[in-house]
Every structure is written in C-alpha cells, then in structure tokens.
Amino acid sequence: MEIQTLERILAEHPFFEGLETYCTNLLVGCASNVRFEAGKRILREGEEANAFYVIRQGRVAIEIAYPQQKPIVVDTVTEGEILGWSWLLPPYTWRFNARAETSTLAIALDGKCLRTKCEENHDLGYELLKRFSLIMNRRLDATRMQLLDVYATR
Amino acid sequence: MPRVEPDAMVPEPWAVQRVVKETPDTFTLALKPTNGGQGGFQPGQFSMLWVFGVGELPISISGDPADSGSLTYTVRSVGPATQALVSRAEGQSLGVRGPFGTGWPVDVAEGKDVIVVAGGIGLAPLRPVIYHVLRNRDRYGRLVVLYGARSPRDMLYRKELALWARQKDTQVLSTVDYGGVSWRGRVGVVTSLFKYVRLQSARTTAMVCGPEIMMRMVARELAARGVSPNDLYLSIERNMKCGVGFCGHCQWGPHFICKDGPVFPYARIAPLLDRYEL
Amino acid sequence: MAERLQATLAPDGIDKLIRALTGRGYQVLGPTVRDGAIVYDKIEGADDLPRGWTDDQGPGRYRLKERPDGAFFGYGNGPQTWKKYLHPPELRLFAADRQDGLFHILDSTSPPGPPMAFVGVRACELAAVGIQDRALLEGKFRDSGYGSRRDRAFIVAVQCTQAAATCFCASMRTGPEGTNPEVRAKADLTLTEVVNADSHWFLAEAGSKRGREVLAGLDGQPATEEAIQLARSAVESAAAQQVRHMETGGIHDLLYQNFEHPRWDEIAARCLSCGNCTMVCPTCFCTNVEDVSDVTGNHAERWRRWDSCFTMSFSYIHGGSVRTSAKARFRQWMTHKLASWSDQFGTTGCVGCGRCIAWCPVGIDLTEEAQALRGVVNDGNTNS
Fold this sequence. Notes:
The structure holds 3 protein chains of 3 kinds.
Chain A: H1 2-12, H2 21-29, E1 31-36, E2 41-43, E3 51-57, E4 59-66, E5 69-78, E6 82-83, E7 97-100, E8 104-110, H3 111-120, H4 122-148
Antiparallel strand pairs in A: 1-8, 2-7, 3-6, 3-8, 4-5, 4-7
Helix pairs in contact in A: 1-2, 3-4
Chain B: E1 12-23, E2 26-33, E3 46-51, E4 55-60, E5 71-76, H1 80-86, E6 93-100, E7 113-119, H2 123-135, E8 143-149, H3 158-165, E9 170-176, E10 186-187, E11 204-209, H4 212-224, E12 232-235, E13 251-252, E14 255-256, E15 263-265, H5 266-273
Chain C: E1 6-9, H1 12-23, E2 27-34, E3 37-42, E4 53-58, E5 61-66, H2 83-86, E6 90-99, E7 102-105, E8 116-121, H3 123-137, H4 144-152, E9 154-158, H5 169-172, E10 189-195, E11 200-206, H6 209-216, E12 221-222, H7 225-241, H8 251-256, H9 263-268, H10 276-280, E13 287-293, E14 299-306, E15 316-317, E16 320-321, H11 326-345, H12 355-359, H13 366-373
Parallel strand pairs in C: 2-8, 8-9, 9-10
Antiparallel strand pairs in C: 1-11, 1-12, 2-3, 4-5, 6-7, 6-14, 10-11, 13-14, 15-16
C-alpha cells in the first residue's frame, strides 16, 4: 500500500517527469516516507551524504554554522523541492546543515543505494545528473543574485 | 491640447504631519497641504520633493490614493539629499511638485488577478496599488503580493503585510536574501516565491518594482510562466532634475522616465533592459 | 504708405533696420566680432556687424578671415546660437524665504525685460528654433518662460549665400531654403544679401504683419523679378557649395540597431567628453537645477543652468552613473540627436549647422561617424 503511494508521488513529481518506468521503479525501491518535527536537524555538515529528500510539506532551512553566533540561514527549501545533492558527487559529505523550520513531511531516497545503481546503470545516472544539474543551476543563479545584494545601498 | 503649467517648476509648501521609522534607514513621511493643495494621485506616480536650500528628489507616492487630503512618501536615506528629507520634523515644510509620471494600470487590470512583485524599497510605489485593489475588492480577481527584502530588519510595512494576508482572495508571501540568526521565514531571492503561486497567466496583470536587476529576473520569470509582456508592468528609475520632461536627465533610449514612465509595459521596454549603459 | 511684402534695400538699410527695431522697443541682438569669433551680442547699428568678415571652418577648426567685398553676413556660423537668449544658460526658477521651519515662495515672476530682436538668423537656426519650440512648448508640459520670450522675439532671418566646409543643412533639409516647413520658425523679415563687383543690396521679404510694418518704414524699393531671381540663385549656390552630407535615409534604425557597433569604441578613444558639441548645438536643451542659499540659510533660490549629457553626473542615480564610459555618453548624444529625438518630438534633432564638427577639439564629424556606422569608411578627401 505504502509503496504504491510512493510510486504515484514520485511518478507525478515534476522532478522525475520523463523518466523511464524502470528508473522510477528503481527509485521507488530506494524510497521511504519520513517526517521531521519542527526544529529537527535533517542534515549535518560534514556527515556522510546518504540521502536526498523530496519535500512534500513544510519548510527546511539550509544554514551554515557561524562561529560565536547561531547558524545563518542561506536558503529555504519547501514543498515540491528537492533537498540535497551531495550524495551524488564525491566526497559524498554534506556541506551545509539543514533543519526543519516547520513540521516537515518528505520522501527520503537512499543515496548510497542509488549511487550503486547509477554506477551499474549509466542511463539512470545520466537522467538523475541532468535533473540535479538543473536544480544546481537554478540555485547558482539565485545565489548569485543574493550575492549581488541588490537591495543594499552602494 | 498641451497642458499649460506655468509653475510646474515651482513647489507648493506642504507640512510634515508624521514621520514613521520603517527600518534603520527608511522613513515614511505623511504630508498635509498648507496652501489648499490637493492630494490626488495615480498609484505609481511620484512627486518632486524639495528640501529648502538643499535639493530636490523624485520620490514615489506610497500612500492611499483614496485619501486626497494628504500625500505619503517612503524614503530610504542613501545620501545627503535623502538624509535631509527624512530628517524633517513634524510641522516643518517640504516643497512638493507633481504628481508626475504614468501610473500602474489599475484600471486595465479590473476583472483580472493582480500580482504585485516588490523588491526592497520597490514595495513603496506598489503599496498604493494594494490599497486600491483592497478598497475595490470586487472589481479584481485574486491579489498576490510577493515581496523580497534584503534582510528581516529591512522589511517595510510588516504589520500591513500581515493584515493584507488575511484579506479575502489575497496571498502575501515574503522572503529575504539574508536571514540572519533569528528569522524563521523564507530565505532566497524573490523569484523563489513563484513556486507558491498558482498563476492563471491569461487573466493576470503583473506589476513589478525594485532594483533593475531584480525586475529583469522577475519579468523573465513571469514571461516564462505565460504572462503576456503587455500585461506585465515595470517601474523604471533614472536621474531626474525637473520631473516634467525638460532637463533631459531621465532619458532612457527614446523615453523620458518622468513623463513616458516611470511605469512601462514590459512589451515596450524589454529590449532596452538588456542594453548596458543605455 | 503701402505695406510691402518684398523690397530691395541699399546697404544703409541694415543700419536703419536695426535702429527701427530699437525704436520699437526691441533689444536688438546680432552677430559681432569678439575674441576671434563671430558671437551674438547687443548691437546698436550696422557698424557692430561683422562686415567684411568670413570664417574658415573644418573639423576642430575655426578661424576668422577678412573678405574684400564688405559683406555684412558673409560668414557661416559661430559658436553661439539663439538658444543663448531663448533658453538662457542661467535662469532663476524661484526664490523662497524660510522662517521657523516653514518656507514660502517669493513672487517668482521677475519683470521680463524688453522683447528681443534677433538679426542674422540662418536657415539652420530657424529650424533649430522650430525644433526647440516642439520640445519645449508642445509636449506634455510647456516651458512658459521660453514661450513668452519666443512670442515676443522679432526674427530677422538672413539667407545663406555661401556654405562653410562644415555645413550640411542641405542634406538635413533644414536649409539653405529650408524645405521642411514643419520645423522652421517663422521669420518676421528675411534678408538675402547680394554682393558682387558692381553692386551690394539686400532683398527683404516680410513674413508677418509686424515684419511688414518694419519693412514699410525702411525706404526700400519694390523688389523686381530680376532681383528676386538673383537672390534665389545666390541661395542655391550656398546649397551647391556644401561638401558635407548626412545620409538621413534609415538613420533612425541605423542608430538603434547598432548599439554595440565597434565604431563607438573607436570614437570613444578620441572623444574627450568635453561637451563642447552640446554647448554649441542649437537644439541641445538639457539643463540642471541647482540650489543656492545665503549665509543665514533662510533665503534659498533654485537656478536652472545648461547641462550636458557628457558629464559623469548627468546619469547619476544612487550607486553610480548609468553611463560611465565616454563611449556610452557619446553614443547617447549622437543617438538622441539623430534617432530618439524623432521618436520624442517628431522631428530630427540635427539641423546640419556643423558647429559640433568645428568646435570639437578633436574634430569628430557626425556625418563621417554616421557613414562609418553604415559600414562606409571615408576614403579621405571630400569630407575634410
């Protein structure tokens, strides 16, 4: 019952659109439902990156630890978005912290398991890399905009 | 027939009625006429505000267009002239010329959904639109307000944003570029808010105001989501000395921002936005 | 005495004309020699005119030379234009006094002074006045000060019977005959000077009621057909003498479509951004507004002054100027003059007077640059 629901969710999610059925099946095999309470840490900087998340509900803050003060939030990820791609690229460790701002529902995909499958099946690997590159590209654009600090006085 | 304005260059004295500090560097001034002047204006228009002996600046009117008894401006202090402006005390006078310029298309937008996208101080010239739509609620479809600020302490009109969010068929979303340590809201560029909005692009009028880079990005995003360039409006800023099309300073390509603008449909100006040092 | 539309005048008629205008209460302004140039200033009689002078002009070059025939108006043009009087370089907009944080505007109307009479207005200048009329009187707002100076001004036009090497009014259709009446200010009187070995006389044509009235008092003779023909051919020869041409076909699109043309960089390497071109151009009208106050700080004035798009501060908004490079500023000026102006005001902004060519310290030639943008590089002889 649960696997059917996950399958439908993944198949209907825009991120996975266009994937061959066997790819979606592979992903479903690595997927599980997860829930995070508000304030719970999801990812920790420096730890092994073994998963990525499709956020179904709630908001996750991506933050950087800052000496002598509380961590600084540099981005927020929410419903429909993908959290985490460090599982895909060496050294497979998280570079930021992520914390659930609000109570958060997500689908967790087992990154380690997926990495193996991508090495075995390069078509799957290419399809995933294409999609993650798009996300990184958009994030890079947005980050550059934030870097410009357009609202500041000069 | 051309309008005869013999005193278009001579200001009327208005008195500062109230000064409200919005953020560490931004203040809202409410002015009352002293010589029997009228406060009427179109949302999106600006006045030339003169500080006695110091200088004059174009400032967008940020108040309620239905209130003809006063004029309100939200000013960010970025230099000596704006600093002089925001330092006015209650009772002191400021010179007012105007209102000048083209306004937001609140008439053309009737019957449609209205999406207002503001960046930083750009929310100030858009606030009259929000007031107008909320005051005439049944003439418009959904109202969506997307607001991006630099950081939480740079956000304008926070109480009003919360109030507007509670209105019928009204969605208000904000985000900051820099969250700091205690912000629990969204962090990211204003275009990241689009994913929360269900746009019915065929029946939407979009009005965008903020730094030019931000407006370019937002316009592209809106166009990609199907909003027609004729239904998408930007407010452009340039150096102004006279406000009435004579000094030549505000020219941008063939347009005088003071009289052909500041509000333009994207269709008319899209190619100009990409021209460096135009 | 019958009012005459066309008459011929002897050379002494010019002095009579100036005095007649003075007698009618006009401040008469006209060309005179000063500091090695022909400039506009108050004139009291024909002796103040640059009789027997002509000019030798080229890119970055202006010299006065004597001419043997004693012509009154035998020169091309000088560094000044009539905007000096119609759109003054300095103008007080208003004054105000302050007390206890409140200010009030002092009566801002200063007495207007006597009406002006301009003697020696060339075809290119008539066109320029017409173009400025469009910009300053017929837009969304009206410069009423300009309007009143303009209405009261008596214009004595002088037809050109020769061309300076920098002139290209014929290709701009603003002169010498001025085939574009839409942008031509009306002259109250038009003079054509005909001078040769055996004669020196003027054809005088009235263009208005007050022009007719003045002409009637000048002891002229009714103009014969022959005189009119001689005058016309003299003007035609001025057109034939022009060596510079602006190819105006498609110039609007040429400039708009070549925003990134490499020629702009080439010009920028030469242009000093000195702004001379904007100062001598008869149509440039950009101004700046300045605040001044007295020592007590209780009296303030706002003044309007000529400005130039070549200054760094012209396009300054908080954070910096929009046009920081000389390239951007030259491109702005040339594009405005030849292209955007027509979108804004329905006319060209350039009258082909060539002043910008002569008074540019490095001799940048608008006609040559327009050709370069078309991809036509000058082979180096006709346009120098």
